């Protein structure tokens, strides 16, 4: 009788442990290049949510002066406890620039769970086509149990923060100033501008080149036309009854806003890529924003006045294009989102206890409505919020500043 009871107890313990071995959580670690004579490594973060045999979440890494993050999907094998995630573009270890060569990698890691800690050891490996160019990356992930799935930023981020510089798609925004809004300029916009210039040169070679003033005026006219079109579409949708309203997908031939870069500074100088725009365009975009109804998703408590906001297209990549507003002012305009994160670095208004971030839908994409995953990081806590906007409603999140009581620089009055 005692032996049977003992064996049943052991079986129950093993069953409980097997059920507790889940890939959900926040994992962080260091990936080392498996190449002779190379001492390069990547600081990595993997935030996963497991649903049955599937996992999804965000993968990010710091390498040299670059931060990249992606929305990922993969598989989890409960029998072998292996996590598999395909199609992860990672910078080649020998790259000298942030826009260098990327290696298409896949991740395989084995989950090990114990009372002391949970680990996931594995590697990022290239496809057979690039096995002689892109070496394997050995990685050891450790789960952060202190904050569950809502993890803080990487614990070993000193090197990444020290050498970080803004990328072309990154934006730093300061609230409360009536400056021209900072707008993300991606490589796609530059490529489109180059292609357009080449086509014009081929079709009309005798045409005189425009001056800088004429080019800027032409761009501003195009931006105004696009804003007017978006405004008309929003007004037309607002007049319809909610029961009879049908999704309206703007024409895919609508040109994206192209704006000239004037200056680029580092975050230490509290600035970023500055974009020249017209007050008329900003006013029209703000009017269109005011006509739509704000839908408040969630209140987020933040401890810092400087935060990083990253947008991903969390569904099928269907051409969703958004603008982002901070306290009713545009800070990012006409930006198409994909599975590659679009980063915005925001300095909140210190005079306000609550700041608002709104996602304004420029279109509905191929599959309405316009949806995105927004990740907010304040240096201590990481939040993930799923947003959904339409041509009549704007998803909005309120950022609530926490009152700090442990500030070492705060003046302490001595008792009488």
Count of folded domains: 2
Termini separation comes to 73 Å
Beta-strand content estimate: 35-45%
Report the total helices.
Answer: 5
Helix content: 10-25%
Mind summarizing the main beta sheet? 8 strands, antiparallel, barrel
Rg over C-alpha atoms, rounded to the nearest angstrom: 25 Å
In N-to-C order, the SSE pattern is HEEEEEEEEHEHHEEHEEEEEEEEE
Give the low-pLDDT segments.
15-19, 148-169, 178-187, 241-276, 408-416
Shape: globular
* Overall pLDDT: 73
Summing up helix and strand content along with how strands pair, one would put the structural category as alpha+beta
SSE map:
Blueprint: H1 2-20, E1 25-33, E2 41-51, E3 54-63, E4 66-77, E5 82-91, E6 102-113, E7 118-126, E8 137-143, H2 158-163, E9 171-174, H3 187-203, H4 212-239, E10 261-263, E11 274-275, H5 279-291, E12 293-302, E13 306-312, E14 321-326, E15 329-336, E16 342-347, E17 354-361, E18 370-377, E19 382-389, E20 393-401
Parallel strand pairs: 9-16, 12-20
Antiparallel strand pairs: 1-2, 1-8, 2-3, 3-4, 4-5, 5-6, 6-7, 7-8, 10-11, 13-16, 13-18, 14-15, 14-17, 17-20, 18-19
Helix pairs in contact: 4-5
Question: Which terms summarize this structure?
Answer:
20% helix; 2 domains; globular; 5 helices; disordered C terminus; 5-stranded mixed sheet; single chain; 416 residues; alpha+beta; 8-stranded antiparallel beta barrel; Lipocalin
Please outline what is shown here.
This protein has 416 residues and is of the alpha+beta class.
Provide a descriptive summary of the structure in words.
By secondary structure, this protein is α+β, with helices and mostly antiparallel strands. It has two domains: 22-163, Lipocalin (Beta Barrel), CATH 2.40.128; 171-401, no CATH class. The protein has helices spanning 2-20, 158-163, 187-203, 212-239, 279-291; strands spanning 25-33, 41-51, 54-63, 66-77, 82-91, 102-113, 118-126, 137-143, 171-174, 261-263, 274-275, 293-302, 306-312, 321-326, 329-336, 342-347, 354-361, 370-377, 382-389, 393-401. The strands form four sheets. It has an eight-stranded antiparallel barrel with strand order 1-2-3-4-5-6-7-8. A five-stranded mixed beta sheet has the order 9-16-13-18-19, with no helix packed on it. α4 (212-239) packs parallel to α5 (279-291). It is globular. The model is unreliable at 15-19, 148-169, 178-187, 241-276 and 408-416 (pLDDT under 50).
């Amino acid at each position: 009788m005692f032996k049977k009871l003992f064996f049943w107890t052991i079986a129950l313990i093993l069953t409980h442990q097997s059920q507790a071995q889940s890939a959900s959580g926040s994992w962080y670690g260091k990936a080392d290049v498996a190449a002779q004579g190379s001492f390069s490594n990547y600081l990595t973060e993997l935030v996963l949510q497991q649903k049955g045999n599937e996992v999804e979440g965000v993968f990010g890494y710091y390498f040299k002066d670059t931060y990249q993050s992606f929305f990922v999907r993969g598989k989890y094998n409960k029998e072998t406890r292996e996590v598999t995630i395909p199609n992860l573009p990672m910078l080649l270890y020998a790259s000298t620039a942030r826009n260098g060569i990327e290696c298409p990698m896949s991740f395989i890691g084995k989950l090990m769970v114990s009372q002391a800690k949970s680990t996931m050891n594995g590697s990022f490996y290239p496809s057979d086509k690039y096995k002689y160019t892109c070496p394997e990356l050995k990685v050891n992930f450790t789960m952060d149990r202190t904050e569950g799935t809502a993890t803080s930023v990487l614990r070993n981020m000193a090197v990444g923060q020290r050498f970080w510089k803004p990328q072309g798609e990154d934006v730093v925004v300061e609230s409360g100033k009536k400056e021209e809004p900072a707008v993300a300029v991606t490589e796609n916009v530059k490529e489109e501008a180059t292609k357009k210039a080449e086509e014009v040169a081929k079709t009309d070679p005798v045409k005189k080149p425009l001056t800088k003033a004429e080019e800027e005026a032409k761009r501003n006219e195009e931006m105004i036309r696009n804003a007017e079109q978006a405004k008309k579409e929003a007004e037309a949708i607002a007049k319809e009854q909610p029961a009879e309203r049908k999704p309206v997908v703007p024409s895919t031939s609508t040109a994206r806003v192209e704006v000239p870069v004037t200056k680029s500074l580092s975050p230490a100088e509290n600035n970023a890529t500055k974009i020249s725009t017209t007050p008329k365009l900003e006013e029209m975009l703000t009017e269109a924003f005011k006509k739509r109804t704000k839908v408040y998703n969630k209140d987020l408590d933040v401890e810092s006045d400087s935060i990083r906001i990253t947008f991903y297209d969390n569904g099928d990549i269907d051409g969703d294009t958004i603008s982002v507003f901070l306290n009713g002012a545009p800070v990012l305009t006409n930006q198409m989102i994909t599975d590659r994160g679009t980063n915005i670095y925001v300095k909140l208004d210190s005079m306000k206890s609550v700041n608002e971030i709104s996602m304004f839908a420029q279109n509905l994409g191929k599959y309405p409505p316009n949806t995105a995953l927004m990740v907010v990081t304040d240096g201590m806590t990481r939040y993930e919020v799923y947003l959904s906007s339409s041509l009549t409603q704007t998803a909005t999140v309120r950022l609530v500043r926490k009152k700090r009581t442990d500030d070492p620089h705060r003046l302490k009055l001595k008792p009488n």
